Structures are given as C-alpha cells and as structure tokens.
Amino acid sequence: MAVPLQRPHVVCLLLCCLTSCLSIPDPRQRDALIHLEASMQTGGQVVLSDAEQRLDALLFKMKQEETAKEDFPPAMHFFKARDLIKGSPIFSLLQKMPKGGALHLHDLAIVDVEWLVKNVTYRPYCYMCITDNRSIRFIFSSQLPKPLQRCSPWIQLKHLRAKMVNVTELDNSIRNNLTLYTDQEPEAVYPSQDVVWEAFEQKFLALWGLVMYAPVFREYFYQGLSEFYMDNVMYVELRVLLAEIYELDGSTHDSAFTLRTYQDISREFKANHPDFFGVRVIFSIHRGVNASVMTGAVEEAMKLQKDFPDIMAGFDMVGREDSGKPLWDFREALSLPAERGVPMPFFFHAGETNLQGTEVDQNLLDALLFNTSRIGHGFALPRHPLARDLSRRRGVALEVCPISNQVMKLVKDLRNHPAAGLMSEDHPVVISSDDPAMFGASGLSYDFYEAFVGFGGIRSHLGSLKQLAINSIRYSSLTPQQQEEALAQWQTKWNTFVSENAF
Ligand SMILES: [Zn+2]
C-alpha cells in the first residue's frame, strides 16, 4: 500500500498559499490539489506502463460514455441493471481482467441456480416438499423420506414431472425458490430488510438438501470453482458451514469429512487448471446459536485448524447481524484460542447494518478487539472513526460486497455506497460477491463493475483496478511466501491482459 509520505506538508503549503491569496487562486495550484487528491485514492500511487496507460485511456472513454447514459446501472437495483451491465464494454473488459482472489463468499451460493435445476433436480431419488410458508425443501433418498414438519408429503420429482405436460413452469418455480433474483419489481417483492432476509434464509434451506447430498456436493463445488475460474479469479476463500454431507441411505458424515472433500476437490481442480492458485476455507457458524454451541464450534475450529492447516483459514459467524447476537455476547468462546495459545484467525462479518448506535453496531469495534484479520462488509465503518482508524493502521481490510449490500437493502444507489469514501482515501478494501448465485450474479465481475463504475466514480482508473486485484492477494490468508507466488502468477496474467486489450 502506498504511504502518503509528505502529503500533509504539501497540503499545508498549498492551503497556506491559497488562503494568503487575495486574487483569483492560481489554476496551477488548483490542478496540484486535484492531482494530489486523486493520488490518495485506491491505486492512486500505481505507476502505469505505456501499455497500461493506453488501456486506461480506453477505459476512461468507456466510463464517460457509460455515465452519460440515461439508465446508469449502478443507480438501479441490480436485478434491473444486470442485462444493461451484461451489454457494457467495461463489463466485458472486467470479465477478462485477472481479478486475483475472491475473499468473501458463502458455500451454498456460488453456483448458478440454473445448473442446480437442470443438473441436480433431474437426478433419480430427488424428493421435494412444499413448506407452510411456500418455500421448498429437497432430499435425495433411496426410500420415501420421513415426513418433515410443516411441509407437504414428499414427492419424487421424477414422478411429478412425468405427470406434467409442460415442466418448464415447475422448473422456473424451483429456480425462483433457490435465488432472490426476480424479473418482477424487486422493491415490490422485497419491500423491507425483514422480508428480504426471511426470503434469503428460506432459499438457503431449500438449497441445503440439494447441495449436501454427497455426489452432488463434489460436483457442485467443482462447478463453483469453474464459474470463478471462468471469470478470471485465481484464488478463493470460502465461508463454509461444514454441514453434514449425506448419502442416499440417509447416513451422514462429520465436519472433518466435509472439509476433506473441499480439500480433495480443490486439489483436483488445481490439477486440471494449473494456473488456479487454490482454495482456503473459513469455518462459519450461525450467530443465532447459544453460548455453549458457540464454544463447541470454536473448539472444533481449533481442532480442524490443527488437522487441516493448508485449507483451514480461520473462523467466522454468519446470519443477519441485526437479529442475531452481538459478537460481545460470545466473548468467552472467542477468547478460547488466545487463552490456549492456539492460533485461530478470525474473519468476522461486522457492520453489515444501518442500525447506528445499537449493540449490533458495536460489532466493528468488537471484531477489532478480537484481532479480526479482515472485516466482512464493514458497511457501517465510516460511522465509526476509531474502528476506521484501527482498520487502516492495522491493515485489516474490508471485504466490500456492493451487490449484496444493495439487494439486502442497506443502500439503493451504489454511487452512495460507503466504500466510495473509503476508496477515495485508499482504505484497505477488497471487492467480493458474497452470495452471487442468490443475487443473480456470478463470479466477481458484476461486483467489480459496481465498484469501478458506481462508487469508484469517473476518477477511479486502471491503477485502482490493479490495486484491488493486488489487495485481494495481499489481504488473503495465504502465507507471505504463498502471496509472493500468487502475485507473480497474477502479474503474468495481468501483463497478458494488458497487452491483449491496450490499443
Ligand atoms: Zn457474507
């Protein structure tokens, strides 16, 4: 990260000069101030090569054309903006750009739901039931499964489809139950945070039975890595619940089995794609659990960290912060690793809220008190000057997920995302996509588009994109040596990208 050496002196000099002026300020001083401020942003200190400058000029022209459009995608809800973004030349370029790592993703929402509908629900022994609140649940079973509370009787999808003349409607309905994305008016379908969070959690429960079936699980994860690889992402850090994987006869496996499966599939994927750097996982538990369950989870995480040091990156909590318990409630469990002298990096979601001043709003400071390695979202950070300062000084990066924050109704117009201010002063940030399949997105490019075109404003440039990609490796959980290797690999890809696209 560039250190703004000498800046205070320059600013002081310029301002002294300005305030002592009695006539119209000197345009050269004005230019110097503008230049100085622009150099403070993310990537502001990056020196571009000739080829990079040519590409940057091209990008600048594209961005000017994009911002002049009447329908400016970052100002719109992503569900309405998606097709416009797909047609954007900046987006095509971002898809080709080597983006480094995706550091904030969740296990059950990384694969396009269309793949699940077409490839998973058509497998034999797939049963479905409909819940009282009109969500759906799935299970694969060699015999009729036991009835589920508050759900209709199970029906095998193969039999249901056989009775239908046209299965498209059923497939569409299943798909709609697996993602928040809708082609209806998003504000009408999800009028409040409560409604969108309830739908979000129901859809995760629907995904659960489909994905955690052993043969599907392996293919699902491989497919997820493929989607990120195709989007030019070379490294993934995944929040995982390590839920039980189950077999057709109903037998289940423990969390170590799930972790080993992640490890095996990651290795297989890397063997087939040598330019993919790898995967690490962050063991996560729902923040709705009680203190003793949390203690058990932290103990389990410590054991897994010891047994699987290559793939285990650390620990986090998931679920809605506003309705869950604050981090401070779990202080005893979260202190266990330090008390026992066991290294256990934390990667806490914190500040994914606009409930200023509440108990939950203290999660940012608490996450920093517990020495979190990064902050998931940190949407509320600009309202916490001390947390902001600590995060900056300690290099605790924010994992900014623009589309997620918009769909979950923290911000409407992505030009107003709080990360705009943070990026204008080169606060440590990385861009990620949280649950892309849940939002109708994929990979990282859509979120990079929103960050670059939306809150990056007209001044963010190729240097900003380059810095964001470098940040995603520098702020990853990889060891310093691995980071050097990953950066070297990324640099080669970057050079190719620049030479192929700079005219
Ligand atoms: Zn998240």
* Oligomerization status of the protein chains: single chain
Annotated CATH homologous superfamily of the largest domain: Metal-dependent hydrolases
Q: How far apart are the first and last residues' alpha carbons, in Å?
A: 29 Å
Kindly provide the radius of gyration, computed on alpha-carbon positions and rounded to a whole number of angstroms: 24 Å
Return the CATH class of the largest domain: Alpha Beta
Low-confidence stretches: 1-5
Catalogue the ligands: zinc ion
Mean pLDDT: 94
CATH architecture of the largest domain: Alpha-Beta Barrel
Largest sheet: 4 strands, parallel
Strand ordering within the main sheet = 1-5-6-7
Number of DSSP helices?
21
CATH fold-level topology of the largest domain: TIM Barrel
Structural class: alpha/beta
Topology summary:
Layout lengths: L6 H14 L6 H13 L10 H18 L10 H9 L2 H8 L4 E6 L6 H8 L5 E5 L5 E5 L14 E2 H6 L5 H9 L9 H4 L3 H19 L2 H17 L4 E6 L14 H18 L5 E9 L4 H17 L4 E7 L12 H10 L8 E2 L12 H7 L4 E4 L7 H10 L2 E4 L1 H6 L11 H6 L4 E3 L13 H11 L6 H13 L5 H22 L2
Helix pairs in contact: 1-2, 5-19, 11-12, 13-14
The structure holds zinc ion.
Question: What does this protein look like?
Answer:
The chain has 503 residues and is an alpha/beta fold. The chain folds into two domains: 90-112 and 212-498, Metal-dependent hydrolases (TIM Barrel, Alpha-Beta Barrel); 114-199, no CATH class. Helix content is 49%, strand content 11%. The chain has 21 helices and eleven strands. It has helices at 7-20, 27-39, 50-67, 78-86, 89-96, 113-120, 157-162, 168-176, 186-189, 193-211, 214-230, 255-272, 291-307, 331-340, 363-369, 385-394, 402-407, 419-424, 445-455, 462-474, 480-501; strands at residues 101-106, 126-130, 136-140, 155-156, 235-240, 278-286, 312-318, 349-350, 374-377, 397-400, 429-431. The strands form three sheets. A four-stranded parallel β-sheet has the order 1-5-6-7. It has a four-stranded parallel β-sheet with strand order 8-9-10-11. Strands 3-2-4 form a three-stranded antiparallel β-sheet. α15 (363-369) links the parallel β8 (349-350) and β9. α1 (7-20) runs antiparallel to α2 (27-39) and α5 (89-96) crosses α19 (445-455). The radius of gyration is 24 Å and the shape is globular. The two termini are 29 Å apart. Residues 1-5 have low confidence and may be disordered. The protein binds zinc ion (ZN). Zinc ion binds at residues 104, 106, 349, 376, 434. Residues 104, 106, 349, 376, 434 line the site of zinc ion (ZN).
